[in-house]
Design goal:
- The protein has 486 residues and is α+β, with helices and mostly antiparallel strands.
- It contains 15 helices and 9 strands.
- The strands form 3 sheets. It has a 5-stranded antiparallel sheet with strand order 1-2-5-7-6, sandwiched between helices. The chain has a two-stranded antiparallel ribbon with strand order 3-4.
- Helix 5 packs antiparallel against helix 6, helix 5 crosses helix 7 and helix 5 packs across helix 8.
- The two termini are 64 Å apart.
């Protein structure tokens, strides 16, 4: 074969190859991107219909949870809406049979037999997830020991799930204590909470305290004293602070005062628990003052709630009638303008629970012996508090806080003289006079000359240490040699 024939054959084969390549390019050109490569994460588009809500709470995800409860026999059906709020809607439901409902072959619908199990009425509290009005919940969860590892402020669904579990556990703790009436919690599933429905017996809910028609003036006093007693029992026995106690979150059922809406309740160890308690006292006093009765000073109620030992009290610390009798006879009535002025001062006080919460001016007052304010807020001697604490032992399986032995006195303040130390410290405290100025120790309170000398000694020590220090470039060479040998 001549050279010309070989060249012509090669040219034909090359043209055929180019033709095939062009066909492939035309076929897959729409799948080939020639623009600059970007490593940013591609946006995924989600259908908004998956989050479409009815009545601000019923989205497809929540409906699946409700259907699951019906299939498992927890509830039979979901009826109308009882109330709406900033965080949730409450619906009425009948309890299920405990078995899966039967499907009618003719109609294809679920049918549940009318049994005694259906007579129990439930309140279904469904929290808002997609449409949130109440968003600032961080202060109620931040610092809570039980939820220290389960917080997600940036994910609304996870946050609401934690919020629902928080109310379930608080309700369970109050109900198990047996000292404060509260709805019995049944089940919680994500953002759906099932609990006992407080009914008048005719299908309507029992009235809230704000809607209750009082029979006479004595009944107003009775519920006021009961509310004050509940605040103490909630703090001392249940180890909780309501944080939103008012006439809107209490119900009169069977002539008893029931406590509801405890989703925001915190433990006494919470950094803002005392501020929440002070707010609860203010709300309760404002309501009953509008009802035209004499109220107690807020500071007096605060001391009554946080004190483990009550002077001249001879009853049962867990008995509501005994506490009501003590309140009516021993707490002073707010009657003068001076009491009002003291309440205003008390509302603006910086409440502290530990030495870390004290400011420098507080230590100055303590050094000068002017601790009249702090002395009235800290605990009494350890022996009395220790004896009283034995009366408030309450075992809660869901209680995730530190053991009782680590807790401070009933006032939840740290004793400035070291009340949380060993029992030997309490014995030694007898030899010290409260009026004698205390010598504060530590770097914060040392003399300027001593501080200057201490810093100079530290500099000299570091200077001597640097003289024998291996140079960085020598150290790198040694490390490199060691690695190369391996």
């Amino acid at each position: 074969m001549s050279f010309e024939d070989k060249f012509e054959k090669l040219t034909v084969s090359q043209r055929a190859s180019d033709h095939i390549n062009n066909q492939l390019l035309d076929k897959f050109s729409h799948k080939i991107k020639t623009d600059e490569l970007s490593f940013s994460k591609a946006k995924t588009s989600k259908d908004k219909s998956n989050r479409a809500t009815v009545e601000n709470v019923l989205d497809p995800r929540t409906m699946r949870f409700l259907k699951s409860m019906v299939n498992r026999g927890v509830i039979a059906d979901l009826n109308g809406c009882l109330s709406t709020g900033k965080e949730a809607n409450v619906y009425h439901a009948f309890a299920g049979t405990g078995k899966a409902p039967v499907v009618d072959e003719e109609t294809g619908k679920y049918e549940v037999l009318e049994t005694d199990g259906l007579r129990a009425e439930y309140a279904i509290k469904i929290y808002k997830t997609s449409i949130l009005v109440f968003k600032d919940r961080e202060k109620y969860v931040d610092g809570e020991f039980r939820f220290r590892n389960a917080r997600s402020q940036h994910n609304p669904r996870k946050m609401i799930k934690i919020w629902a579990e928080k109310e379930f556990r608080n309700l369970k703790r109050i109900h198990q204590s047996g000292v404060i009436p509260a709805p019995k919690p049944v089940e919680v599933k994500n953002n759906v909470l099932v609990m006992e429905f407080l009914s008048r017996g005719d299908g309507f809910a029992s009235p809230k305290l704000k809607d209750y028609p009082y029979k006479d003036r004595e009944e107003i006093f009775h519920y006021y004293y009961t509310m004050v007693a509940y605040m103490r029992l909630l703090y001392q026995v249940c180890r909780l602070v309501h944080a939103d106690l008012s006439e809107y979150n209490t119900i009169i059922h069977d002539d008893q005062l029931y406590m509801i809406d405890v989703s925001q309740s915190v433990e006494p160890e919470h950094p803002m628990s005392l501020d929440f308690l002070r707010m609860d006292i203010k709300n309760v006093n404002l309501y009953f003052e509008k009802m035209g009765i004499n109220i107690f000073p807020e500071r007096v109620i605060f001391q009554f709630v946080i004190s483990e030992v009550l002077e001249k009290f001879k009853g049962d610390y867990k008995n509501v009638p005994d506490l009501i009798g003590y309140i009516s006879k021993n707490l002073p009535i707010k009657s003068t303008e001076q009491d009002e002025a003291e309440d205003e001062i008390f509302r603006s006080l910086h409440l502290v629970r530990s030495l870390g919460g004290l400011e420098e001016r507080d230590f100055d007052r303590y050094t000068d012996g002017k601790f009249d304010l702090l002395k009235s807020l800290i605990a009494h001697d350890n022996e009395r508090n220790f004896a009283a604490s034995e009366q408030f032992e309450f075992n809660d399986n869901d209680h995730g806080s530190a053991p009782e032995s680590e807790e401070s006195s009933g006032s939840e303040y740290e004793d400035l003289s070291g009340s949380e130390e060993d029992e030997d410290d309490s014995d030694d405290s007898e030899y010290y006079d409260d009026d004698e100025p205390k010598i504060l120790k530590g770097k914060k309170y040392e003399d300027k000359d001593v501080k200057k000398l201490r810093k100079q000694e530290a500099k000299d020590t570091k200077r001597e240490k640097r003289k024998t220090k291996v140079k960085k470039h020598i150290k790198k060479k040694l490390v490199k040699k060691t690695k190369s040998k391996k």
